[in-house]
Structures are given as structure tokens and as C-alpha cells.
Known about the structure:
Elements: H1 3-30, H2 39-58, H3 66-72, H4 75-86, H5 94-113, H6 125-144, H7 152-183, H8 186-213, H9 216-239, H10 247-267, H11 273-284
Amino acid sequence: MPLWLAILLTLLGSSLTNVSVALLKKAMVQRPVRLLSSGLALTGWTTLVGGYGIFLLATTARAAPISLLQPLSAFGLVVIALLAVFFLHERFRVCEWVGISLLLAGVVLLGLSAEGQPTRSAPAAAWLVVFMIGASGLGLALLTLRSWLPGQRSEEVLFGLSAGLLFGMGYVSTKLLSIGWQEHAWHLLGLAVLGIAVGMIGGLMVLLVGFRRGRALMVSAVNFVTNQVLVGIGGMVCLGESFPREHEPFVWRIAGLSAIVAGMLLFAVPSGLSGRRASVTASRTPLPEK
């Protein structure tokens, strides 16, 4: 598969995945007990599976490392931002929009810094095991901090971080799945299936709970940035995807990381609690059944 086709499939898959996020959030607000049976929820689940399947197809391109494809899914952050405002009726402060813009710019710059080179044919299985245990363990540990860091913003950040760690492991495992299949390395296929099951399913469960307790865009933004960083680390450490050596891609990588840090700091800026509580309450108020 050519690189340009893998990029187009990634953009399409990311868009569908984030449309499903908005649909599932809406379904949870309307009928929480019918998340597996309502028409809106079923449409969301179908769109989610379809989007992930398209992304899985994109990862079969050996010339497209996961550290290149995953940052391109930043386009999905624009989709969820628009849907959060016009479909979910969530409200956000100016500095939060600036933060999201910086995050988007950061991941795009990270994508530009990645070189379209194939991953090595023999990923390090030992590092993959350490990576999976570390990512899943840290993700679960962050959820236990909720009792120590009460507050709406803390919950949004913690759920987003935990989901991002699990999804990051899942995305690295997705690329590993295509490598293991192409190389006929059954031990890598086993690790990939385990990583996808724990990372993608566990990350989705954490994300949905986070949507119930906070705003979809905020939880998604933190999740998105976290899994981008983890995918970059996992791609280099576990799959042999190298850090840029040329001057221009190296500058883009530093600029992208700086923009991400700045965006996360804007999310941490204190704000008036009344306005924030009102917006959160509005986003979580059940809609009347028709």
C-alpha cells in the first residue's frame, strides 16, 4: 500500500472514530442504561468499529510507521471539537480553545517530523512486554488518584490520561499486528492481540466513564495527546522507528512537543468554578425521552 493511501485511510478512520465518540456520549446522556441497545448507541458502536477497521488497514503499509500515522489522526480532534459544541452543546473557555489549537498544532508538527520509513522486521518482544505492562499499570494507577485529587477538572484529566495510556498501547499493538502477520511471527501476533484487547477495549471503557463525569472534548483532548506521546515512545523503543536525524524534521519534533506542553498547561489554568459547573451540568443533564 502506498504511503499516501495509508494517510487518507488514517484521516477517514479518525473522523469516523470521533463521530462515534459524540454519538456514544449523546446516547449515555439520553439513556445510560441502554448503551448497548438504543439506535443511537448502536450507530455509534458500528461507526467506532468501522473507523478502527479502516485505521487497521492503514497500518498494513510498511512504509508508514505508527509514529507517522497516529499524529495524523489529529484531524479527529477537530471533528470532536465541532461535534462537542454543535451536537453535544458543551461550552468551553477561550483559553481551552487556544489549548486545543496548540495540541492540534503540536501533533501535526510531530507528524511532519516523522519520516516515512518502514519499521524493522524484528520488533523487540521483551521491550513490548515491558511497554504493555508499564502502560496498563500506570493507566490503572492514575484512576486511583481520583480520591486524592477531587474536582471536575482533575477527573477529566485523570480519565483522559488513563484512557490515553491504554489507547496508546492499543495503537502500538495494532501496528504490531500487521508486522507480525506479514513476518509470520506468531509470538508477536499473540502479544498484539493481547495489547489490542487490553488497550483498545480498556481505553474505551475508561473513556466512556470519563464522558459521564466530564466534557467529551476535554477528556478526548487529554486522551489524544497522551496516546500520541506514548505511541511515539512505543514506536521508537519497541518497533525501531527512529527519531528524526535531519535538521528540519528535528526542529518540527521539538516544536511539536513544545506546543503540546503549552496546550496542556493551558488546561491547568484555574478558572471560575461557577461557569465551569454550569457548563458541565448542562452537558450531563438527561434529555427528555420522546
